[in-house]
């Protein structure tokens, strides 16, 4: 596939008294936000995830759009996916690959790019030479393969994938199997680290692999080795401690839009999470159109973005990169950076 460059306008920064400094990276401001409302050629179509390689290039995946983009020096290039809902290209160059419902992307320390190809029930890998392969999943829904090679294992709706801080393991939200699975990138072995396959609210202190989950939508690990699990329908943030036991740390399952301490906080259909180096967890609270922050030291959930001048619409992706939070404002078809 020939790279299709799209020249983007210079980023514009807005600051309000109620919100942090926000920079528009791709897309347009909304009316009333203070910046120019623009129409750009080749706009993003429901972007869901972003991450960065060692050269500072942003990789972007779209859910409905079915395309992979790379943004560098203000220029966005379409590098893969033709918009179809299909599964092609393994073993060949990235430009010939197609996807079906990409939910997010993670870039490893060696610049390997991992994509959760959700409705193809697999994880695709793009190596540094631009070749694409499937490293987890057979392409058919099911549950199998724990303790063996991930390429031979079955998954059922892989939603979000995130790398551990060291970049040696990939955490997988295996939605319809109601499990969180872990792929060791050195050995290729996959195992379950949370969820027993049954639907339910886990009891605090239960061994995570023996506990039910409601619907694990997203997962991320902090630098201390804790693994956070976000449940969309469960409207809660949970954590698997290093001892392998699971606890609910924010939200109580009820839909709502309230900041507060621990289970006093309320979410509504949250979709994705990421961690910063201090262990704070950022939540894309989709139906509330907000970005929330969980502070593990105090247990407090606060709102970072969406209640002031900047209006979000179904934000999905959140990514921490070099001291800044990147927000994929999915239904506004744009990407923002929060200082």
SSE blueprint:
Elements: E1 4-7, E2 13-16, E3 19-26, E4 47-52, E5 58-62, E6 68-72, E7 75-80, E8 102-107, E9 113-117, E10 122-126, E11 132-136, E12 158-163, E13 169-174, E14 179-184, E15 190-194, E16 206-207, E17 216-221, E18 227-231, E19 236-240, E20 245-250, E21 260-261, E22 270-275, E23 281-285, E24 290-295, E25 300-305, E26 317-321, E27 324-329, E28 334-338
Antiparallel strand pairs: 1-7, 2-3, 3-28, 4-5, 5-6, 6-7, 8-9, 9-10, 10-11, 12-13, 13-14, 14-15, 16-20, 17-18, 18-19, 19-20, 21-25, 22-23, 23-24, 24-25, 26-27, 27-28
Architecture overview:
The chain has no helices and 28 strands. With about 350 residues, it is mainly β. A 5-stranded antiparallel β-sheet has the order 1-7-6-5-4, with no helix packed on it. The protein has a 5-stranded antiparallel β-sheet with strand order 2-3-28-27-26, with no helix packed on it. The chain starts with a strand and ends with a strand. The model is unreliable at about 1-10 (pLDDT under 50).
Low-confidence stretches: 1-12
Q: Structural class of the secondary elements?
A: mainly beta
Strand content is 35-45%
Order of helices and strands: EEEEEEEEEEEEEEEEEEEEEEEEEEEE
**Biggest sheet layout:** 5 strands, antiparallel
Shape: globular
Please tally the β strands and state the result: 28
Number of helices: 0
Distance between the termini: 35 Å
* Percentage of residues assigned to helices: under 10%
The pLDDT mean sits at 94
Strands in their spatial order, largest beta sheet: 1-7-6-5-4
Q: What is Rg? A: 19 Å
């Amino acid at each position: 596939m020939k790279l299709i460059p799209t020249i983007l306008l210079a980023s514009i920064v807005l600051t309000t008294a109620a919100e942090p400094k926000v920079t528009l990276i791709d897309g347009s401001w909304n009316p009333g936000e203070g910046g120019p409302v623009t129409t750009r050629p080749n706009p993003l179509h429901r972007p869901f995830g972003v991450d960065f390689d060692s050269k500072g290039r942003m990789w972007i995946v779209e859910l409905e759009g079915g395309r992979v983009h790379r943004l560098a020096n203000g220029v966005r290039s379409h590098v893969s996916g033709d918009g179809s809902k299909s599964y092609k290209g393994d073993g060949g160059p990235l430009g010939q690959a197609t996807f079906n419902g990409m939910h997010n992307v993670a870039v490893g320390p060696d610049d390997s790019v991992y994509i959760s190809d959700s409705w193809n029930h697999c994880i695709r890998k793009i190596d540094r030479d631009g070749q694409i392969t499937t490293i987890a999943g057979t392409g058919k829904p099911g549950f199998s393969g724990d303790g063996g090679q991930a390429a031979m294992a079955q998954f059922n709706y892989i939603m979000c994938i995130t790398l551990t801080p060291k970049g040696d393991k990939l955490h997988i939200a295996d939605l319809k199997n109601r499990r969180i699975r872990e792929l060791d990138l050195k050995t290729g072995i996959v195992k379950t680290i949370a969820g027993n396959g049954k639907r339910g609210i886990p009891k605090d202190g239960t061994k995570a692999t023996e506990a039910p989950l409601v619907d694990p939508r997203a997962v991320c690990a902090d630098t201390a080795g804790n693994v956070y699990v976000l449940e969309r329908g469960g409207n809660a943030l949970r954590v698997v401690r290093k001892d392998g036991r699971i606890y609910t740390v924010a939200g109580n399952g009820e839909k709502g839009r309230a900041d507060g301490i621990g289970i006093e906080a309320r979410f509504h259909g949250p979709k994705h999470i990421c961690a910063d180096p201090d262990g704070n967890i950022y939540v894309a609270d989709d139906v509330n159109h907000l970005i929330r922050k969980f502070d593990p030291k105090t247990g407090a959930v606060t709102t970072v973005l969406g209640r002031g001048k900047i209006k979000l619409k179904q934000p999905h992706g959140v990514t921490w990169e070099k001291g800044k939070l990147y927000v994929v404002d999915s239904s506004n078809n744009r990407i923002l950076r929060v200082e």
